[in-house]
Amino acid sequence: MNRFAQTLAQRSLSLQRARPEILQVNVGKLCNLTCVHCHVNAGPKRKEIMTRETVDRIIDWLANTDISTVDLTGGAPEMIPDFRYLIERVKELQPSRHVIDRCNLTILLEDGYEDLATFLADEKVEIIASMPCYSAANVNAQRGDGVFEGSIAVLQLLNSLGYGIDPALPLHLVYNPVGASLPSPQDALEADYKRELQTHFGIVFNRLYTLTNLPIGRFAAYLRRSNRLDQYMQLLIESFNPETIEGLMCRNTISVGWRGEVYDCDFNQQLGMQWNNGQPVFLWDVNPDSLEDREIMTGDHCFGCTAGAGSSCGGAIV
To answer: Among 122, 148, 281, 292, which one is least packed by beta carbons within 10 Å?
Structure first.
């Protein structure tokens, strides 16, 4: 039994799935950036991308469910050849189905993606965009030289299309701490972001989501190199908040990998935590009605989602 499971047991807590409401699809590990905090180890040289055949099988499965939200992540999800096709197929099922694009912003400046922001607006796709800070130094330190300036340009473009202004075009930003610490309180940080981005760049957005860096992937390697992995894990463990359990994203979200495998969350996915004794279970072999009350697979990394105010795909939990 891992330390997280032990902590739940000691507090007479359990972690089971509720009815699935969100299908989160990680379409691959290809990305135009190589970020220090990335738990996916994504980058420009990665070859793992979802094929059209897999996209079609996922859409066929989705058609037989009442899951209303499809959450696209990566890598940079926009970089797979069938990104637009995937969104169009979801919308063809039912125009009211909600699609989220987890965007690093700078991809919308790359050659071949110049009209993608307009496409996203036309399809009413919600954008959740990585923005580690409102200062250039912090963003460029975490994501690479010039990323801050590019991100600002894209946010201004999105605003010009109605994002962050039109209720049908929500624009949310995501904050990750630069180092081995917990995020600041979400509401206070959101107020700082809104003030600074509006004052200096005329940028508006809807919400700021604070996410805790999980000690896996590239961020874990960074912690090991700086001899801070054990210290960071201890911080997460000591900051465990039982009030976060009910709001964890793994309870109502199905995570799907680029080959179609099913996981409890994107973090478990990157750790290869398969459902069936280490063997892959594919989405199209899963009955969505059978998932409720299923026990969720956990590991020590789960302390990252339950530390302090908690961390989920929708930001702080409590």
So the answer is: 122
Q: Can you spell out the DSSP letters for 146-183?
A: THHHHHHHHHHHHHHTTTTTSTTS-EEEEE--SSSSPP
Q: Helix, strand or coil for residue 88?
A: helix
Domain ranges of the chain: 25-227+244-298
In angstroms, the CA 94 to CA 68 distance is 9
* CA 173-177-181 angle, 5° bins: 145
CA atoms within 13 A on the CB side of 17: 22
Give the residue, 91 or 218, on which the prediction is more confident: 91
Q: How far is CA 221 from the centre of its chain?
A: 20
- 3-class secondary structure, 116: helix
Q: Are 212 and 305 in contact (CB under 8 A)?
A: yes
Beta carbons within 10 angstroms of residue 120's beta carbon: 24
- The pLDDT tens digits for 188-214 are 999 999 999 999 999 999 999 999 999
Torsion region of 308: left, alpha or beta (phi above 0 gives left; psi -120 to 50 gives alpha): left
Packing angle, helices 186-201 and 147-160, rounded to 10: 80
